[in-house]
Amino acid sequence: MAHVFVYGTLKTGQPNHRVLLESAHGRAVFRGWGRTVEPYPLVIAGQRNIPRLLNLPGQGRRVAGEVYAVDEQMLRFLDEFEGCPDMYQRTRVTVAVEGAGGTLQCFVYSTATYPPEWVHLPYHDDYDSQGEHGLRYSPRESR
Q1: What residues are annotated to the active site?
Q2: Residue 91 in contact with residue 108, Cβ under 8 Å?
Q3: Nearest 5 degrees, angle CA 84-CA 55-CA 129?
């Protein structure tokens, strides 16, 4: 089982969380809430208001999210779901897990290629599709 850190629409209560629950995609077991050890820019970008973790460690904020242990089938599904490697790239990040008193190396779907203006968008530390930012996520079903 690999650890995956989710910070956007895959989190509990967010529009795409259901895909982590569907056993046809593989197995995902919630391991806890966490926050990146290093800061990263988490922006909401594009016409569909998609949360993007820019692969710029050391910039931005320590990002909050959830850690899941996933099997190989779920990891392959998530790669496809996240458009890896074109839209997102699966990289590693160190996450401080709440209540565990330690850190985990986790896969995360971050963005290494993006329009330069995204670096100047507001940085967030915790994504919510219905958040005060007012940028409503456009679900896949309505695209």
Answers
A1: 82
A2: yes
A3: 75
